[in-house]
Amino acid sequence: MLIRLGVVLLFCIWAKVSVALTAEEIFQLNQNRLLQIKLVEIESDSKSSLGSGFVVAQETMVATNYHVVSQAVSAPDKYRIEYLREDGSTGELQLWYIDIVNDLALLTSETPIAEPLKIEANAPRKGAKIFALGNPMDLGMTVVPGTYNGLTEHSFYKRIHFSGSVNSGMSGGPVLNEAGNVVGVNVATAGNQMSFLIPANKLNPMIHTSLMVEKESLLDYAAKQLETSQSDLMKVLLGNKWKLEKLGEVMVPGEVGDVVSCWGRSTRGDNKKEDAAIVEISKGCSLQDSIYISSHMTTGSIEYEFYWYEAENLADKRFTKFIEKNMGGYPGNRVGKEDATEFKCEEAFTTLPGVEDPSALVKTVYCARRYKEFSELYDVFYLRFAKRGGKALISHFTLAGVTQASANQFTERFLESVTWQ
Q: Hey, CA dihedral for 73, 158, 149, 287, is it positive or negative?
């Protein structure tokens, strides 16, 4: 009888462990393991930003988003970082390590905070229920049930597509599976129950690296990570065959691998167009994501665009004036004056290869600016106007955060790929 009872008890214990947790149970088990992360501007003693975090190792190491504490990375003497638990206990945290490409940061406490959450080794199956935890709008701990939809497609910086509302203040909070293990980290939302998470498999390598590397400036870590990331991206772009597509009478690059997506439109037959005598056919291609550096700087993005114009029955001067009016452009990423030097540009006027038409004209503008904190990286802006009779093509690309060598390789490949038939 005692043996039977023991077997029954063991079965019950196993069953309890294996049963999927509800949102209520997730809340109860983790209400004091979730942290509000507060960035405080020291001089005013006021909060500058709020996010969420959770303990990942040794009861003293905390994970959050890089963007939650990014101001303290660039100006460590101006800010302090504090945590607040659901029970009201508080403490101070120190920056330990960052992964700027994946928008992650590790913080440490001198005293134990809470038991670490377990990081799940395997990704959930598509359609699985998962739970986003965080402290939205400074309102206290919130659990948001949602669905795991796999990794985002046509993306280089992979994110989990989560059907659930991740709101401001939840950034850096953990996302748990039904066993209560971490499968992701809150990072962004697009509204309408569409949010994005950093995969949990980015955490363990980061924790391991942070314990092994020699300590140096966090900005030095960031510079190396950005250089490695852009090198990997260029290997993908230049290592793949570029699909060439027809646009008017030219062949231009389309989608590359599974990282660049393209869209297009045409005004042919559109009588509502301001100047119906001119037909415009356009194609725009880009990465779908970028790397957050600060509130006034993003990098890691690539875009290229093409605009084909036809005006067979329009005077040449009027057509040229129209094209020049539409030839403006600007870099696709956001950079402040304190982040980079001014653009230095070179202009060149040439002719179309093999074309004897005296009205044919090619104008090229190539600009570059260097990052001040990451001196090996540049933004490159390229614009080319080619006109032949009553037809013209405007080509543009922006490379954000690339080395000079990578910029030269991409430019050469781009010019080889744009051909006028």
A: positive
- Give CA–CA dist 394/282, Å, rounded: 9
Q: Which long-range contacts (CB under 8 A, 24 or more apart) does 233-237 make?
A: 233/156, 233/259, 233/300, 233/302, 234/402, 234/406, 234/409, 234/410, 236/156, 237/302, 237/410
pTM of the model: 0.88
Closest CA to 196 of 164, 168, 169: 164
Q: In angstroms, what CA-CA distances link 67 with 63, 211, 384? A: 12, 22, 36
Tokens read off for 249: 């009478």
State the Cα torsion 222-227-231-237 to the nearest 10°. Answer: 70
Residues 6+ positions from 406 with CB-CB distance below 8 Å: 230, 231, 234, 399
The answer to whether 239 and 258 have CB atoms below 8 angstroms apart is no
Model pLDDT, residue 216: 74
Taking 60 as the threshold, does the pLDDT of residue 5 lie above it? Answer: no
Quick: pLDDT tens for 43-73.
Answer: 999 999 999 999 999 899 999 999 999 999 9
Distance CA 390, CA 279 (A): 11
Return the H-helix or E-strand segment holding 264. Answer: strand 261-266
Q: Rounded distance, CA 69 to CA 49, Å?
A: 8
Q: How confident is the model at residue 325 (pLDDT cuts 50, 70, 90)?
A: confident
Tokens of 281: 């056919």
Q: Which residue type occupies 392?
A: A
CA-to-CA dists, residue 267 to 282, 309, 393, angstroms = 9, 10, 15
Other beta carbons within 10 angstroms of residue 8's beta carbon come to 10
Of 91-95, 136-140, 294-298, the poorest mean pLDDT is in 136-140
Cα atoms in the 13 Å half-sphere on the side-chain side of 417 = 23
Q: Is the pLDDT assigned to residue 13 strictly greater than 60?
A: no
pLDDT at residue 258, as a whole number: 85
Sequence letter at residue 310: E
Gap between the Cα atoms of 177 and 166, Å rounded: 16
The pair of three-digit structure tokens given for residue 326, joined into one six-digit string: 């539409």
